[in-house]
Amino acid sequence: MRQKNTIHYWHTSKRNMKHFFKLCAVISLTILISLISVYKSPPARRARGGSALPGHASCRSLFTITRAPDNNLWFPEMSEAIRRVRHLIQKRSSPMGATSEDYRRLGELLPALLTIQDNNSTNGQGGNQTKREPSATLRSTTRLGATGGVLPYVPCTIAPFDDPATVTACLRKRLAKGALWIDFFGDSKLRVLFYEFLRRTDSEYHYRVKLQNSTKRYEELRLNFGNLHHDMEATTDLEPRLRITFSFRPFVEMAPSLVRESAELRQLGKWARGEERPPQLLLLGYTTWMMQRMFFVYSHDAYSYIMHMHRAVVPLLQQISQKTRVLVIAESRYREHAVSNLLKNNRILYGDASIDWSAMVFLYYLQQYKQQQSPHTPSRASTAHTTPVTWSQDENLHHDDPTPKAHSQTILDHMVPREADGGVWWWDTGLPLNMAAIGECDELYHRGLVSIPAYNGAHLKCGDFHHAGTATLSDMVTMLFNLMCNSLLGAHNTFCCSRGVEQNKI
User: Fold this and answer.
1) Does position 258 have pLDDT exceeding 90, yes or no?
2) Alpha-carbon distance 365 to 358, whole Å?
3) Taking the C-alpha atoms of 456, 434, 491 and 237 in order, what is their torsion angle to the nearest 10 degrees?
4) Residue 10: pLDDT band by 50, 70, 90 thresholds?
5) How far apart are CA 79 and CA 150, in angstroms?
């Protein structure tokens, strides 16, 4: 009887093994086909370490969380990611707004860059355990690098652009169309992103950065003059028509009656009215400097000032976004255990509740402005859909002539606003990346590892209470290069910001 059962078990196991091998073969074939579809594209646009995800390879979805990828092959937690993404989108579009906790829960799905070892050992003779200080190992890659360009809340693959030569090749193509001006407009959160953007290609371009009273090489600037509170302009001899600027604008005007007279609003107004040429790419962010007003006024008054600022800024940004690409960057979040956090009331000034409220109000006014635009009246953005307003090649970089010269574009370029994806883009896909880093900083703090390089280094930047580290900033710059380059370089249509998916809509 035992022998018969053994034979039956052997046959059953053999059939199960055959099914198992067939399943493995199917999965392997699926992966192979996906990989071939990726590697048919030029090497510079491959998402290394992973495969392209199927689905809608839009561009706006790279910056604004709209839905999760369709394929669950690469993320076992994809069903949970879909649930969390839907929950965030629903809350973000409701009066209550999304919260930092919603983004933190998405950040929990991302791969860890930090590994902590307990370093406990057991004595073999007496069985006594020897306790040592824990240690930590920090991966030098970013989270996009760890996932091969796949995020559980972005429905397209993100190309790496980790080779400076690839970026410069893209910029040469773009500059062949005319001068290119990129402006980082806002407070220190924009400054650190400006620095990271320059760092990616400084080995090729050797930027000179013009300050108020001097000019510095980029590397000297970053090491010795990092926390400057004034404007900077980076240029390169290799591409004289490339201009990358940081406009320090803290948005700190307190009196509601004077908000429109502030330097920030005056400049935005000139761009909105067409009195000056706007940059081809405008990145804007502000809030924390206004939060500092709580040092001097009641909290409800400070919130009122922020509300007035948002109400004045939103219409101008919407008008600018009809002729240039505008990205408003969601604020990075507060690090409660940062070494630089010397003031106990910083939690009130810069805490999650304040930043969440500010974002909710900004998005509310953004939605209100859109609803006020009559769908029966053709807007300037609709006109730009058929004949996009661009700046001709014979214009120099300095806006002496404020009148744009329009000409039609034949290929889809996501830097040019169109009816399908026009308007202000709210950039919140970097938030889960930053929240994941904050979670790892908290882990190091609770384990008493605040003195090790992983805590104090630039990669996580745990010692800074509100600026993102280079692990997050680098991934955000990668997203920007996807926006600027993928359509020009002919990326496969599973990549974000490619021209293949929406080509027939033009």
Assistant:
1) no
2) 11
3) -50
4) very low
5) 15
Taking 90 as the threshold, does the pLDDT of residue 410 lie above it? no
Phi and psi torsions of 339, nearest 5°: -65, -35
Q: Position 134: which residue type?
A: P
The identity of residue 76, as a single letter, is P
Measured CA to CA, the distance from residue 91 to residue 106 in angstroms comes to 14
Token pair, residue 428, equals 């919140």
d(CA 147, CA 50): 7
Calpha distance 52→74 (Å, rounded)? 10
Give kind and range of the element (H or E) at residue 488: helix 470-489
User: Of the given ranges (281-295, 303-317, 469-483), which has the lowest mean pLDDT?
Assistant: 281-295
Q: Any residues with CB less than 8 A from the CB of 384 and at least 6 apart, and which?
A: 322, 323, 416, 417, 418, 419, 422
Of the two residues 141 and 419, the one the predictor is more confident about is: 141
Task: Tell how strand 425-427 and strand 325-329 pair up.
Answer: parallel
Position 77 scores a pLDDT of: 64
Q: How far apart are CA 19 and CA 25, in angstroms?
A: 10
Q: What is the mean pLDDT of residues 259-267?
A: 93
% of the chain at pLDDT higher than 90: 54
Q: How far apart are CA 81 and CA 89, in angstroms?
A: 12
Task: Taking the CA atoms of 33, 38, 43 and 47 in sequence, report the sign of the dihedral they define.
Answer: negative
Contacts of 328 (CB under 8 A, 6+ apart): 284, 285, 317, 362, 424, 425, 426, 427
Asked if residue 333 lies in contact with residue 437, where contact means CB atoms within 8 angstroms, the answer is no
What's the whole-number average pLDDT of the chain? 80
| Mean pLDDT, range 203-213, rounded to an integer | 95
Other beta carbons within 10 angstroms of residue 93's beta carbon come to 12
CA pair distance 298, 506, nearest whole angstrom: 52
Q: Are strands 135-138 and 208-210 parallel, antiparallel or unpaired?
A: unpaired
User: How far is residue 224 CA from its own chain's centroid?
Assistant: 26
With 0-12 / 13-18 / 19 or more C-beta atoms within 10 angstroms meaning exposed / middle / buried, residue 49 is middle
Q: Which two tokens stand for residue 206?
A: 């050797």
Tell me the residue length of the chain: 506
CB atoms under 10 Å from CB of 130, counted, come to 9
**pLDDT for 299:** 76
- Whose tokens are 């202000």? That residue is 424
One-letter amino acid at 133 equals E
Q: What is the pLDDT of residues 322-334, one digit of tens each?
A: 999 999 999 999 8
Q: How confident is the model at residue 56 (pLDDT cuts 50, 70, 90)?
A: very low
